[in-house]
Amino acid sequence: MANHKSALKRIRQTEKRTERNRFYRTRLKNIVKAVRSAIDEGDKEKATAAMTVANRQIHKFVSKGILKKETAARKVSRLQKAVNSL
User: Is the Cα dihedral 74, 30, 50, 34 positive or negative?
Assistant: First the structure.
């Protein structure tokens, strides 16, 4: 266990950030899963609607620092490509 005041603060900050990041990572997985399931069902309208939500949310995660810009672009691009193939 840390003894310094600053080390204790860093531990508290790390726990907060870890919890926040876990929430966003789970949210991201659920968003992508919604698009993938709509694609698997072959429902073009549902997939397009889910893709709109996914695009907005994924880029919002970039502004929050959860994802890197290139990672978000790659995810959106691959999802959009799959939606367009319907």
Answer: positive
- Structure tokens, 42: 């072959």
Q: For 32-47, what is each residue's pLDDT tens digit?
A: 999 999 999 999 999 9
Owner of token pair 């991201």: 28
pTM for the whole thing? 0.82
Task: Using the Cα atoms of residue 49, residue 27, residue 30 and residue 77 in order, give the sign of their dihedral.
Answer: positive
What are the residue ranges spanned by the domains of the chain?
5-84
DSSP state at residue 85: T
Q: Which fold would CATH assign to domain 5-84?
A: Methane Monooxygenase Hydroxylase; Chain G, domain 1 (1.20.58)
Per-residue b or e along 45-62, where b marks 16 or more CB atoms closer than 10 Å to that residue's CB: eebeebbeebbebbeebe
Q: 51 near 80, Cβ under 8 Å?
A: yes
